Amino acid sequence: MKRIFLILPFAIVLILSACSIGSPKQETNYYVLDYQPSSEKPELVQARNNGKVLHVSNTSINRAYNRNQLVEKENMYKVNYLKNEMWANRLSDAVPNLITSRLRAYNIFGNVTRNITESDPHYYLETNILNIEKIKDKEPRAFLRIEFVLRDSMDQKVILEHKSERYKPVQDDSYVSLVQHYNTMLMEETNLFAAKCIAHFEGRSTDPKALKSIRNPKAHERVIIENLEEWEEIKEYGELLLQTKFDTSNNITYKVEHLDSLDVKIAEEFWYFNEPLSLLEGSYRVHYGEKYEINELVAVYPRQRSVLTRNWCELKVKITDNSQNRVRQLYRIWRETNDEFVYEPIAFDVSPSEDEHGTEEKVWILPEGKYMLTLGGSNWSDLKDFSTLCLREGDAQIFTVIVNRDVTRDNLLVGAGVLADDFGFNDNRTHKGAIHLNVNLTSNNEVDEKDPIYSLRLDSKFDNSVDYDLRPFHYKMRSIYDLQSIFSKDIALRFERDNYNLKNTLMLYPWKKEKKLLGRFAFYGRADLSTHLMDEYTYFTSNKNIILKDLEGNEVSRLLGQDKFRSKIALFPLRLKEGTGLTYHFPLPNASITLRGGYGWQQNYNKRFYSSPISVSEDGVQYDVYQESPDQFSDGVEATLILAAGNILNFVSVNSIFEALFPFGDDVNKARFENENTINFRIYRNISVDLELKLSYNESERKWLMYDLNSYLKLSLFY
Q: pLDDT tens-digit profile of 615-630?
């Protein structure tokens, strides 16, 4: 059983990897085109036919659509084939069958056949489908482009031709509705072709514009005229795209003004860079930039994409400290005016800190010119903590700013400049490490609720982290080894204990970063370890007699006159936490919040771990009785809340982790709660003060809220 728990962290990784390789097989749906007599037009039914034989040939399908899958068009030139939405029959056969049924119902020809051997035809009807697709857009539409060609069988001359494009708005995402629209559009085009056939065999015009001038048109001529009026109302769409040179998932807005024939604004809307915008054919004025101060006229053509020439400048501001750690810092951008040495404000922003995973630097869209960047609340005229930069049209620059995190110094800016404009550039280090030397004043009531222990500790901490992001996977690991010495009211200065904590988290992102909301959602698997590498002793101020008992309460050893006692052996107690579930990251202006929830399980291996002694007297001799703690295993629903806020007031950082486990159906294992809080105050360069508060409540172990409060004066060396 124990081995199973030990291998569970590796099983999580394998399960999540399998999720990315395959998913449950989806059911395939099949669709048919079906003849609907209710869509027939009675005014097209002829009392007498012309006695001729018409052969309806197989429909020719454009190669892009001549397949079993239904087709969606993402933009003007990109199509997707839906692997689970299929035609039950080949369109080349299903479409002419519908047309044949409709023409037979109208009694225009003596016979309409699909079989060439029945009789020698007088005419051949050829149909060509050039497009049959769903156009994905802010206004989704079903689109059909079809041609009808009527030929004389004797000389193969074309005697009648009908070409048409037809749209139908798609009101829902059901593919049943989409196929129904296709069915309806095919029948409407066949009705129109039938009306033109009737007019042609009567020797009358089939041109809808010519028929519109007739005073009393016949019934079939009115069908042709009505179609012309419908066609004139059809909206033709094109696309507009503004694309940044930087690859970013942040929303950058621009404004589009709709213009009439006199270039007067009649409407406006807002859209985003890097996302195509569907617009009706016409002229538009586009405004972009932080204040929408750059504008340009653009023409949009039907079924074409207009890409605006990049005549703006792009700027990213990256703020780090001397150790190349990203720093949360307020900064302002100013632009030089026409007056020499005078700058106007553009906007301000806050750079993301190292803890804000997934938060990108803002991409500024700016006109060509000279700019000044100031840190904090400085005005450009203060000439303090500033740097300047010249941007030319089409530039895309990463402006790196190095700041001094020592708040006792007057100057915040260390240096600034363009260090990289290569768009494959990524200086985020996978591994980061630090050595911390601490002076720690502690208070702890873990042993006795009313008699806390106060002590002064000197310790060193080795902190290493790995952060590897390769979508759809993101792996984070943090390893902390803490070696402590202690001085307390009852104990002289000596080596005290060591602790080792290892935390691993693997996340699988189903959606890309470009998805503004869904891109922050992920599946997670985690495996945490807490242990120590050396034996740990409990020291006494006076010699004591000790009785050791095993799990069953049997005495295993009796020690007399001891000044210390080995309460823990190397590696034990060994704490393991595993979990898997869902996580979501909320970036906030001044902080970030991560929520996790799912299935969790924990194991506490307590081999030769003795705690909570009781005093007994035997034959007048006083003994402290220690009993070995049992192993504990529990699983249930886990929930985690992670809060990170960095560089508050330029020198304070806060991190808080709250964890809860609600075990399944076990009265012995009660719900347990843990909370770790760290507040860091930077004092001078690599010197800081840390306040750490750990809270835990586990009713199955102790009936009170346990806390462990630590304060550190810390010297940090980063590598």
A: 898 888 999 999 998 8
